[in-house]
Write a structure and sequence with these properties.
about 100 residues, disordered C terminus, Conserved Hypothetical Protein Mth637, Chain: A, alpha+beta, 5 strands
């Protein structure tokens, strides 16, 4: 079962982590610059590490050149498990 999430990335921010903004949207700070797919690669790697799944189980299905990304996670995780592992049930916490 695949889970799809939407995340707004903030590249070149000097740190890496997921958090909820004040409106409850998932955001991600990335260290990489948005050039030649570097930020996209970092996003997939960071998400794979946090979720404990292989990188190949995560795919950007929308927003490849946009800051708002739609990602499909093909691992055997539920939407609730993804939320818990990202720590997004606690507003403002970086993971």
């Amino acid at each position: 079962m695949a889970v799809t999430i939407e995340v707004r990335v903030i590249p070149s921010s000097g740190r890496a982590g997921f958090f909820l903004d004040t409106a409850g949207r998932l955001k991600c700070h990335l260290k990489s610059v948005p050039e030649k797919g570097k930020a996209n690669k970092e996003l997939i790697g960071l998400l794979a590490k946090v979720l404990g799944v292989p990188k190949q189980d995560i795919e950007i299905v929308g927003g490849l050149i946009s800051r708002t990304k739609r990602l499909r996670i093909s691992a055997t995780l539920t939407q609730e498990q993804v939320m818990v592992r990202l720590g997004i049930e606690r507003q403002g916490n970086c993971v």
